[in-house]
Give the backbone structure.
Amino acid sequence: MKSYQAVIEMKNISKYFGAVKALEDVSLQLYSQEILGLVGDNAAGKSTLLKVLSGVHLPDRGRLLVGGNDAGIRCPMDARRVGIETVYQDFMLAPNLDVVANIFLGRELTKWGRLAKLEKKGMEEKAAKILKDLNADLGLLSNLVMSLSGGQQQIVAIARALLYNPKVILMDEPTASLSVRAIEPFLELVKNLKSIGCSIIYVSHRLPDVLAIADRIVVLRAGKLVAEKRKLETSLEEVVYFMMGIENQNQKKKAQEN
Amino acid sequence: MANFISKLSRSVYFKPLLFLIIAVGIAGILSPYFLTVRNIRAILISAAPLMIVAVGEALVVLTGMIDLSLESVLASSGVIIATMDIMWQFPSFLSIILTLFYGGLIGFTNGILVVKAKIPSFVVTLGMYWGLRGLAMVISQGYPISPSSVSPSRPFTFQWISGNISNIPVMVIIALLISVFFHYYISEFKKGRDIYAVGGNEIAARNCGVNVDGVKIFVFVVSGILGATAGIIMTSWINQAYAWTAQGLSLQAVAAVVLGGIPFIGGFGTIIGVIIGSFIIAMISDLIVLLGISPLFNYIVTAIVLVLAGLQVRRGTFVK
């Protein structure tokens, strides 16, 4: 029996940028070990929602609960502290540093207190372990990230997200910088993240990908949550209709005729 | 063996070391006097102030910024410590501490202007370059300050800096200690990792929790303190402080940084490389004298070597 404990609960979240209602009264739960596909047209509010969760934006209204408690997220580091990690579209890597350094970027293992001497060996071992758990082979860990392929850089970004056993990983267009060949193994990898206890919010324009891996799909349109469907109960067609705002049968027919 | 060579060629020390070996080799062939202890000692002495400011410049350039104010920090620090020492007769340790503090304060100001006012480092430090020359002029009234500025004349109390410890010049020892310390510090400590991260991808570094503003202020403060250190050393060595000391040294430091393998966008290279770069620059003027060429050719030769050295940092241009 799967547990339906909500890891994240957004209650009536609104976010305005001047007169623009980027998010309006959005309520959403993310359950344990679930992949939630978040779709919508451009400017539907997907990115804003992720940025609220990752602490980049503060919501103007509404509550954000993590594990049942008020999260108190005010900046990206706060989000990390409560176990919410983000994998960005452009991976946010330092090309001049090696794989280990990128995985530990900003959160290095150190000794000697405030002097903060790097524990290079400890970091190497931990990085190797995470990559092994991901079944990923990046060659030498001392390779600079700039020498890696897009797919390999993606893995570095995910390994970084997994560093401190997160509860939730937010993925913003994670396949946008990948070659077609790299997408299939990546989706496999995302599914495997569930089994190690992560919940994932997956934002993508590539609807077939979302339908392939998501357990549940949420559609945003003009800042509002317009549909929430279990994957088995919906289809690509229906999701597209929700995204475009064509919900009733008559409109559907018209759209098909056109 | 092939493995060893491929490993060596990928090492960050490879290019600067290769450069040094080639440069020393050519110099040794050109002049039989080059590879004498006496001559190497002379080069190290003339290179010491440059090495010290180049370490500061290297830290700033590693983050992708530039510090043009170094030579003026040096000149004004010299005037300040000379005034405190000769005119006000402060105890040696106090005037040294105050001068280093002054350098740090200038660096801090540079850093704050870059980070908080968001003015590009080039502009901020160019302003500081003029401003501190001006400060040095105003304090010294345009005259050199030396032991004979007062009567009866009294030597600088920090004169020992231009002396020797078991025949090794103290200023060379200081320069090498500073170089080794910062080389070790930025390769083994988190602060160094942060410096490289800011040079590599500032946005990612900020996003991952690196205190980017703190890093930028840090490198300017260190650069300022090192500029002041070089100012004290220079004053001791030439036995006077003058507002127009060390003209062009900031750009020489930048040249040493580039020769040492740090590209302008930052993120790559090492302090040891920069030390080698400083050594090569000092070597060029030495060699010109040894070969009996007019010293007027110094700049031209340096220019050619520098531009050739630019070839090795090309990789940096398409990193970002």
Q: What stands out?
A: Residues 36 and 201 of chain A are 5 Å apart (CA to CA).
